[in-house]
């Protein structure tokens, strides 16, 4: 399992993050996840609210990639890993509290992403380099 640095955590908290998945035919899907946040040093978490394409794809493959970029700094990261779904435990209760505190729809599930690999998304020749994993 890869470890998130403080710089990575700060960027996730400050930027709009995008979740990428693929369906059973390999068709890509990407979309913003405004509830994406750091869970701990090895996990990201977001509230699944719609139950549409990304949800379907994650049910099938259990694989996710999250991209976050600071456009002005031309720096970013891609986090890849597998997901766990939480529906009736403390993690889910905390996700529901997060939604309520931020005036968001109730979560269908709290989706925990186990970060296995981290890549650079910086501009220049090191773009796409594996940092850890």
TrEMBL record:
Pyridoxamine 5'-phosphate oxidase N-terminal domain span: 13-116
Transmembrane portions of the chain: none
Superkingdom of the organism of origin: Bacteria
Gene3D superfamilies: Electron Transport, Fmn-binding Protein, Chain A
InterPro entries listed in its UniProt record: Pyridox_Oxase_N, Split_barrel_FMN-bd
Protein name (Swiss-Prot/TrEMBL): Pyridoxine 5'-phosphate oxidase V related favin-nucleotide-binding protein
Lineage: Bacteria, Bacillati, Bacillota, Bacilli, Lactobacillales
